[in-house]
Amino acid sequence: MSVEMMEVSVSSAEPLRPARILQQNRVFLDFFWDLANPDQEVRLKAVENLIQYLKTENKADELEYTLKRLVDGLAHTRETARPGFSLALGQVLSAFEDISLQSILDRIKEKHNLQAVKRKLARNAMFGNLFGVLALHQSGRLVKEPQVVLGCVQLLQCLIQHKQHLKDLPSKTMTDILTEIPEEVFEEVLLSALEADLASAFRTPEQMQLLLVALQHFPQALKPKKLKKLLDSSTIINADNIPKLVEVLKMAAHSVKKERILPSVALDLLKLSLKEDSFQLFWDKAITEGMFKEPSGPTHYLSYRLLGSVLPLLSLSQLKEVLSGEVMMHYGEHVVSAQKPDRFKLAPEMDTYVSDFLQNCQDSDKQLAVMVSFSSLTNNGYPVVPSVWQVVQHLKPAALQSYVDWLKGTFLQPQPDRLLDFSTRKQKDKSKEQKESSIFRLRKWIVARLASIINNHQVKKHEDLIMDVARLLMSLHHMPLIDDSAAVSQKRSVGVTADGTMWIYHLVQYAQLLLSHPKHVQSVQPFSTEQKQAWNGMLESVANLKSKAKKGRTTESAAFQQLFLLIGMLLFKAPDEVLDIMKDLQSCIDKAQEKKINKKKKQQAMDKEEPEWVEVMVDILLSLLSQQSRHIRQVCKTVFSSICPHVTAAALTAIVDVLDPDKEDEEDGAVVVTDDGNKTQKKLKDDDDEEQDEDMEDDESEDGSDEESEGEEEEKEMEEGEVDQNFRLELMKVLQQQNALATEEDASSDEDLDDEAMMQLDKSLSALFSEQKKKTEEKKNEKMKLQKERGLVRDFKIKVLDLVEVFVARQAGSPLILGLVEPLLNIINRGMSSGSEQQEQDFLRRAADIFRNHLCRSKVYCRTAGDRQGELHDLLDQLMSKAQKLSDSSLCLYYFSASLYVVKVLRGAPPTETKEEPTADGAAASVNDLKFMGSVDVDRVSNLFREALISFMSRRKSPLTSQMFTDLFTRFPVLCVNLLDTAVQHITSGVRGHQQCQACVLVLRAMQSRDIQQLLSSYEWTQLCEKVSAQLVLGLGQVGQAESKVAKEKLVKTLELCQFVVKNIHQQKLFVDLEQLKKALQTLTSNVSFKKTGKLEDTYWAVMKHFGVMKPKVDKTKPNKDSEQEAAPKTMKGFLPETKKRKKRNKPVLEPVGDKSAPVTKPGEQKGMTKKKQDKKTKQKRPADGSAASQTNPAKKSKTQPDRKAGKKKKPKQKKGGEQM
């Protein structure tokens, strides 16, 4: 088909083609090419356009040609083309109803006749027949012509035999046809034709599917009597047919092994069992007993998929029975065993089935039954579904409430007999204490399950349910059921209820209620007197804050309340550590409120040495951040954002000192990073995600293997590591004491030690080596401890960066923000040279982001730094000198950005008077705005940046880049004007071509800036153009052969600058002499060889165009056809050109070096290309034995003999030509 299409497209371009249709319209023919396009959108558009075109033109010859092309295209070799032609044919038949379907079916059979087609094209012909039937089916007219339906079914029955190519496509097509025809047509026309297939329904899944579809759509035609005649039984599902059905299901399971889907025949059989009231028989005998006889594989997976698919079809009683049977047990074992790597996991599919069921089910009882059944499927007490199972979000409120009640009841009164519990073979060996551990594991899962329900914001839940669960989790701390559940109370939602009350406040109230009933609730860790006073003081302080907040609600009072409540809850976890924090917090709040009421009295009464309340508050926040808790981190961030306006320099210094790398080793003792609670939190996290995995494997074997691997690692370290000299001396002493060390005196003696001496030596060596092993382990443990401490410190610093980020965002206009510039740069500098650990990289990335994006690029900045001019200028001097001494450009960029930020702060905002001037003086006002530099010492700052620019232009390896100075010129045009002369000088005086190139770039960017053009007067602009043109003349005079990439880039940038200068001088009609520049440009062609195209050549001629010199046009000469034919003679079809024969076999191809640069004509190039292709072909065809390759077929030899003689005559000419070249 592709060959025919190619011929049609070629012939359409020839005017002498007799076919009239192909000469009419190129657009019409393109439709058929688009039908074979791999893109589905293009194919669909082509079908639509083809139908519209045929309806518009309404020409019989074009319609006939269309039908021919579409029928031919059904057997296209390209897989994506066949559906396109089939769809087009179906749409054409639907649009033109006068076309007979029988005629099209006859065409399809004739064109794609399997008996007459060649063997190589048999597969394409099969697909042609199949897609032809699909086209007839898609036309929608198949019902109107029953005989065509019969012909299609008969054709499909023939295609079913070729299953290796078509798989089950013919059967599916036949099934689709049955679903659309009326019962009369089936009974009168198809029943007799399909009788053999229906009678053999138990042989293959396809035939069973055909019978099931016929039963579903034509119940009157297939009554029990008819079924009795066909199948010897009036029903499909009965005790006698169960073995046959099992075999059909097994075949269906193996047929979809690669697709990993549920075969439709299985689901249809299950639906039929529900209809025939034989579901229990089918599920128990066919599925539970029949499908699980084989080892784990496709049959098991079919059963699991059937279990998920049947959920919407069952009643409540059937759901409970199915979800508590053996199929669920097998599914649980699959989930457990599939946790190992490289195992197929069906759990995600089951989650989808359950999620779809819960989403579409309106019955709360059914939803509850499914949730309870899957939560009751446990492995040694631990449910196989995860504790964060997302399907819970589809539960209705009533079902959710009942499910939570079931979880609470199971936690308080576990009933293992009601669970569907199973154990693996390894776990069955360890049966001791299994009951207690299974209850413990179940309770742990329930706690995590309840917490995940509360944390999932997509679950629709009432506040009463949230509070109920939160109280249960809170009470677990006081109930001696679980020792590790103290940290569970930390997992709560951060936020408020509908009435504005914080969730943590409700928990504190519930804790107070539990503490006030000691008779009913016994605390695991009772409060001491001092701790009880702290708890009561916390409640009193919160009450006072709430009462004051009602008068004037502020964010500060809410933040203080949240912090108080958080520290109060921490009393249950670490009471001794929290007592001092509670006292300091109370003092801070009292001072803060006192400061608001009467600042003067407070200042008089306060001792000078006593720190500000904000400083104490910052210390409290830093101490809280040292603990491993996400909730504490969020609360500290919220509280600090509320006290940001009150932060003093000393408080900010305390934060910066924590981050300072130079003070990392100092023993401050102010903040100690603790790992308390890490064990409990890590345990809880692992319980949610990894507890199940750990219990699926044999713990003892894993521990043993771990010990062996550790021992092997230690042995490797002992072997590969350096030997301790002290250990060597001790070993020598032991050997000398036992006379076991050979010396020169007794080297010749052959006497050995006696048994007693050997035993003594063994004891001494054993003691020595055991002591050495202890030392090695101590060193290893100490090293791991140091690594862990470093990780905790780094994690703590990342949290402290939260406070810095909040301060920079909230107080960007504060003068204190300038004190963060140097510390952040110091952090980035140390981070660049630190290790490549992930935690180090995260810390560095976070600090760099805060500095660059939040600080330097902030639109809000300090505008009240007028009294710190000298300090800021000194800081700018330090930053620029440091930037020039660096070796890394990426680090230098941060220092340069800091310098620009300091200049921006010094400049400040333009005066408001200039903005309010009338529009008539708008130009003058804008110039004044450009000249405004505020408190900047322009001369001093210009000298600093000039030195940096000279350093960049005069050093070979400078960390500075041209982009840095481009940013400087763009943001501060006044400084750019002062630096322009320096940049112009280095157009020729740069240390290397790269620097000279960058000087051209900087000058060009500056001259293109409108701000620079406004700042310079006409005289200054003319002088600048003269200086630049003079430097360009000198630079062009230095240009040699621009072979290197740097030289070419420099020349391009020089020409771009020339183009702008010359164009600007001509447009503004400036009095600048350009004659020298023109001469330098004209002489450039003698030094540089220009090609026809390219950026360099185009830029050069664009410059010369301003001087009136146009690019010379090259006349295109048509190549002589006669000479081409002589150079490349026509080759005989099926034979190699004579110029390429036997060359490689006669002598090796060794081209001289000079031939590479020699000019070659076009025919020679073509020969070289074909020669390479032919060499590849000869390598593939030539056998390993050289002698066999030389023996040729005598028949072929006689045919090609005359051509070889002609080739031999031409060879000497080619050699001579090659030598002359």
Automatic annotation (TrEMBL):
One of its GO terms (molecular function) is sequence-specific DNA binding. Keywords: Coiled coil, Nucleus. SUPFAM superfamilies: ARM repeat. Pfam families: DNA_pol_phi. Residues 687-722 have a biased composition (Acidic residues). Residues 664-722, 1113-1221 are annotated as: Disordered. Residues 676-686, 1113-1124 have a biased composition (Basic and acidic residues). It is found in: Nucleus. Residues 1169-1181, 1206-1215 have a biased composition (Basic residues). One of its GO terms (cellular component) is nucleolus. Residues 582-609 form a coiled coil. It comes from the Eukaryota. Signal peptide: none annotated. PANTHER family: MYB-BINDING PROTEIN 1A (PTHR13213:SF2), MYB-BINDING PROTEIN 1A FAMILY MEMBER (PTHR13213). Belongs to the MYBBP1A family. This is Myb-binding protein 1A.
